[in-house]
Amino acid sequence: MKANYLDELNEQQRVAAEHINGPLMIVAGAGSGKTKVLTTRIAHLLRNGVDAFNILSLTFTNKAAREMKERVEKILGGTEARNLYIGTFHSVFARLLRAEAHRLGYPNDFTIYDSDDAKSVLKTIINEQNLDDKHYKPALVYNRISAAKNSLIGPEEYQHDYAIQQEDMRANRPLNGKLYDMYAKRCFKNGAMDFDDLLFKMYVLLKSFPEVLHKYQHKFKYIMIDEYQDTNPAQYEIIKLLGAAHENICVVGDDAQSIYSFRGATIQNILQFEKDYEDAKVVKLEQNYRSTKSILNVANEVIANNKGQIEKNLWTDNADGEKIKLVRTMTDNEEGKFVADTIAEQKLRNHYANRDFAILYRTNAQSRAFEENLRRKAIPYRIFGGLSFYQRKEIKDFIAYLRIVTNPQEEESLKRIINYPVRGIGKTTIDKVSVIANEQNITFWNVLERANEFGFKSGTLEAIENFVIMIRSFQAMLGKHNAYDIALQVGKSTNIVKELFNDKTTEGLARYENIQELLNSIKEFTETPTEDGELVESEKSLGTYLQQITLLTDADKGNDEDSDVVKLMTIHAAKGLEFPVVFSVGLEENLFPSGLSINSREELEEERRLFYVVITRAKSRLFLTYANSRYRFGQLVNNESSRFLEEMPEKYIDRSYAGGGNVNRSPINNGGGLFGGNGNNMFDRMQKKSPTAPQQPAGPRPAARPVPNAAPSNHVPSPNFTPDDPAIMEPGMEVEHQKFGFGTIQTLEGPMNNRIATVNFPKGGGEKKIMLNYARLMIVKK
DNA sequence: TCATCCGCTGTTTTT
DNA sequence: CAGCGGATGA
């Protein structure tokens, strides 16, 4: 261990890192070095005699967990660090449940359902109940169930809770509770837990088995929780139980970055920490080491619009840096083009590498315009999130086989593969098996095993029997062979690999490659040495592998973090990360803030925190972009700029960049040809397209609309019309306006960021007041 | 039983 | 503009 590990910390950081016993809350502002503090604190604990086996550190993402592990290893060296329990809530609990699930009546090799699996089960149940799945949409029902579980409300309680029942009645879905009950029973029968069960069942386990609780209380004497502001009631209660014996709970969080309430997180957990633990020590980390002053000041001012925060004053010693660039484009595609062009430009001009850029958006669907334009410019990029590798059809199909090998009672997967590849067991047969299974109260697999008892047609019976024999042959390999060998055998026996290999279409090829990648990942899994085998004996088993990958998101795939690519992801996915140059895109009403969140103060504040998060991802340069119109549902819709833009202090904003708020030209080529390069600038086109378009010509929504009223003269703008920066305009100059033609500036008034010019247009209707932020003028003669 | 085509419907955010 | 589910015909 490095001797001077505490030396690199500032005073507050050091106070936090040196705290050993008793509850501790670290309020860590964005970029204030909380990971450093956490990792140093772990080192400090060990230095002071705490056993690594007694430390539990919980994070929200695998990425955060991995980073923490790596950094701890750097301080400690690998061997000691290996004994620490560091992981996400979900993965750690899955691991514990793997050792204890039998107590709850689940197989220890229980299957973990991702949300697609869960919705699929729900859909089956809804249909079995003869309910309309257009009304009882699986996704909606799933959300209700998920919310309930995250609040530790079981099916019984759900059905007897008056308020909940009222809500469901009002939504005209009174049977949600019954569906919840049936869903829970079906999952149990399938030997499966969904994501929320990993928390819910963990709680039930600790609550119902005092000896288990005692065991883990004793084991985890020191508990640390990152991103505490994002914990939900289930997580909160589990932590409370686990920590009750020693109360060595250290939570780190930032209420300003709470962005997961849709997942049941409640900001109350962090706000109440001091009340929960009366002797809690509170340390605030207020120095930001990440961003420039401009960026940080904007972030601070924006977040000040939210109520009820923990008081803190985030500051930085860093340089002022450049102003934040605000850029408006006509369409989503132009937005993509602007970003790609600017990345190319910044690379040249400021010697950035691809990896220095991040494009961050509110919804995954926005990625396309950026992808296309980056590809066009041959800029390598990678999208994080979206459809996970493990959600692809061919991968899910293959994994379904593996799941059945370890857990044949799991019906969802069985139905997936029973006729894939096609082996003559169609829908009719599957339905029949389902009905028999329900009637006889046995599993789907049991029916298949005993197919000869149920009068299937001989051809069908034969197909079923062959299927059963094949699955059994895989199962026979368990224990004797590792996960990779079994997977290989599955690929061979089922002909899946060969079939995909022979499919020479582009999609077929891609699918083949994906399967190869899956096989490789399994191989890698079996060949990587285990981290520790303390709680689970066979870490390399197929069962472990399956549980692990379900909890993996696309962002976790591969450790190619160092690869030199531009990163695209949602703002949610970017939390905890930092980039030299950030593009925060799609800053429009109904998109960011989301149209679904603008009706309540709470939700709007969460969107604002999201805006805060995206701003604070940037180290030195930040671009904010929005488009006048973009495709949604295949339809072009007009957008107002985001209300959040109005909350930014004007003095840190540069609207002059490439046609943003003020002037439509690039500082580089001085010609506004950044987009399209057709010499036809955006403002020009917009005016021609819709002179009275409802959207504002530029800038965040102005209080009063400055559009000159009607009677536009038929002035045709000069072909080289390029608006100039209002800052350099002076009375007496001759200028051109797109509609009013040529004129002379009479007076200038108002602050720089909102200058109003009085211009006399001899042919354009005489004297006009022009708000320069919204209507552009080109200087003709000084 | 299976393949193809048409039409509908949906967009937050994630472990 | 997807992607999916349902209907339809072979």
Describe this structure in words.
This protein has 5 domains: 11-102 and 202-287, Rossmann fold; 111-190, Arc Repressor Mutant, subunit A (Orthogonal Bundle), CATH 1.10.10; 324-388 and 556-654, Rossmann fold; 391-530, Orthogonal Bundle (PCRA, domain 4); 733-781. It is built from 30 helices and 23 strands. Strands 11, 12, 13, 14, 15, 16, 17 and 18 form an 8-stranded mixed β-sheet that branches. The longest helix is centred in the middle third of the chain and has 22 residues, at 506-527. Mean pLDDT is 83; it is low at 532-538 and 660-713. It binds a DNA duplex (15 and 10 nucleotides) through helix 5, helix 11, helix 21 and helix 28. Residues 670-679 have a biased composition (Gly residues). Keywords: ATP-binding, DNA-binding, Helicase, Hydrolase, Isomerase, Nucleotide-binding.
